[in-house]
Amino acid sequence: MFGHKAVPPAGEARGEALRLEGVRRVYGAEGNQVVALDGVSLTLPAGSFTAVMGPSGSGKSTLLQCAAGLDRPTQGRVFVDGAELAGESEAALTKFRRQRIGFVFQQFNLLPTLTVLQNVTLPLKLAGRKVDRGRARGVLERVGLGDRLDHLPSELSGGQQQRVAIARALVAEPRVLFGDEPTGSLDTRSARDVLTLLQEAVRMFGQTVVMVTHDPVAASYADSVLFLADGRIVGHQPAPTAEAVAERMTHLAEEVERQRAMTGV
Ligand SMILES: Nc1ncnc2c1ncn2[C@@H]1O[C@H](COP(=O)(O)OP(=O)(O)OP(=O)(O)O)[C@@H](O)[C@H]1O
Predict the structure, then answer these.
(1) CA nearest ligand 1 atom 12, residue
(2) If you placed Cys at 23, which of 76, 97, 120, 232 could pair as Cys (CB 3.0 to 4.6 Å)?
(3) Rounded CA separation 207/199 (Å)
(4) Closest residue CA from atom 31 of ligand 1
(5) Class of residue 199 by CB neighbours under 10 A (exposed 0-12, middle 13-18, buried 19+)
(6) Which atom of ligand 1 is nearest to the CA of 54?
(7) Whose C-alpha lies nearest to ligand 1, atom 18?
(8) Distance CA 245, CA 243 (A)
(9) 157 CA distance to ligand 1 centroid (A)?
(10) Coil, strand or helix: which one is 180?
(11) Substitution candidate for ligand 1 out of 40, 62, 107, 212 with most atoms within 8 A of CB
């Protein structure tokens, strides 16, 4: 339903889905530079669900954008499913994204004049791929919107719109699905539905998901949490609980405050 990828039996190596090597991203002109990412290296296995957390300004969105090919690192390398994301041209990068990357945003980013089904099939059309409407319908049924195919986004709740956005990402069978605060605009119940959906995509269909969130409860749906501070990975928590994540975040915020006070930044 989500894809054709079979989930390998437990214990079988699934390979890596995403690798960052020494990724650095510096914004601004010389003399006025901000180091958003300061040498981030990580490897995420296929079929994993990772939450990225950190204080405001720690580089979470920049990390996601660089990993997804929406932004280019100043230094370092990004590999998605073993292929380097290095396209010399914007066109090459766009092609790479269309073939390998799914992205879900806080504000859904659906096209308001297209129906639910048209929104979901649009990325396939843009990529010049065959549009299998039956498959698109299947994915929409899977996210609980099989009876809303001909509705416009404005006729749906926020949670339903985000589920359409997830269906739109999944129908293209991305190697990695990125979410930047995908539940940030949703009420508690809709957020839970969306998180359960992402978890199912990982557990039942082997999807790889990387999600930035501020919410420890949202992070607890992931298999593990990466903590960022000042552009660096400063911690990793497998099998996270909301309580443990919240505690770690409190300590991290205090630590960052202390460091900033000491360095006068
Ligand atoms: N286009 C840009 N130009 C200049 N500086 C930028 C730009 N984008 C981000 N930054 C800076 O880079 C740093 C990291 O920003 P980023 O948005 O990645 O952090 P974040 O952890 O996602 O923050 P938040 O939780 O507040 O969304 C911040 O200091 C930010 O001000």
Answers:
(1) 36
(2) 76
(3) 9
(4) 57
(5) middle
(6) 21
(7) 59
(8) 5
(9) 29
(10) strand
(11) 62
Residue 120 φ then ψ, to 5°: -75, -30
Distance CA 265, CA 253 (A): 15
Which amino acid makes up residue 102?
G
Rg of the chain's alpha carbons, rounded to an integer? Answer: 19
ipTM, two decimals, is 0.97
Cα dist from 91 to 23, 41, 69, 209, 255, whole Å: 22, 26, 11, 25, 42
CATH 3.40.630.30 assigned to domain 16-99+174-263? The reply is no
d(CA 167, CA 143): 7
Closest atom of ligand 1 relative to the 181 alpha carbon: 27
Cβ neighbours for 27, distance < 8 A, ≥ 6 positions apart: 33, 34, 36
How does 97-126 read in b/e, with b if 16+ C-beta sit within 10 Å? bbbbbbbbbeebebeeeebbbbbbbbbbee
pTM for this predicted structure: 0.91
Residues with CB under 6 A from ligand 1: 27-28, 34, 36, 54, 56-62
Instruction: For residue range 89-115, list pLDDT tens digits in order.
Output: 888 888 888 889 999 999 999 999 999
The answer to whether 169 and 120 are in contact (CB under 8 A) is: no
Q: What tens digit of pLDDT does each residue of 27-58 get?
A: 998 888 999 999 999 999 999 999 999 999 99
